[in-house]
Design brief:
This protein is mainly alpha-helical. The protein has eight helices and no strands. The protein starts with a helix and ends in a 13-residue tail after the last helix.
Length: about 160
């Protein structure tokens, strides 16, 4: 990661939001050659935690960039091994739990794209979703962060 990307990510998220234009700049800086470094991936996670409002464009970038990094850029390509799963869970657990739709969508993307994921990651995803539902965090996490600009409807 260039120091520039890390500084750019902090600057972009300083006001708690990120515009479509800023996402395009981040995409160009982090992904000019189609690859993202671990430091860039961690900076993207840090920016996600910094944002108070997450647009559908942000969620799309977050999921696409980090899903590609976890599944295809960390060895073994196409698979999520124990080390990759541990790294992903550590990034999500940085704030104590799965609590944003961007993190939920990232987990879904990883499961969809990887040929195989460790049982520990499957168990983690299920337990985090159970906790989120039981503690009511899902609705809070989805408020204002729903993909494609839709709002979740209570049943």
């Amino acid at each position: 990661m260039s120091v520039h990307f890390g500084e750019l990510a902090k600057k972009v998220g300083a006001n708690g939001t990120v515009s479509a234009e800023e996402i395009l700049v981040l995409r160009r800086e982090a992904w000019p050659d189609g690859r993202i470094s671990q430091a860039e991936a961690e900076a993207i996670f840090a920016l996600d935690r910094q944002l108070e409002s997450k647009s559908s464009e942000w969620v799309d970038f977050f999921v696409e960039a980090l899903g590609e990094y976890v599944v295809n850029q960390r060895a073994p390509a196409g698979y999520v091994d124990r080390e990759n799963a541990s790294w992903l869970m550590m990034q999500i657990d940085h704030d104590g739990s799965l609590c944003s739709m961007s993190e939920v969508e990232l987990l879904v993307r990883v499961f969809e794209r990887a040929s195989n994921v460790p049982q520990a990651l499957k168990d983690y995803a299920i337990s985090q979703m159970e906790l989120a539902v039981l503690e009511g965090r899902v609705r809070r996490a989805m408020a204002g962060n729903s993909p494609r600009g839709t709002s979740p409807q209570p049943r």
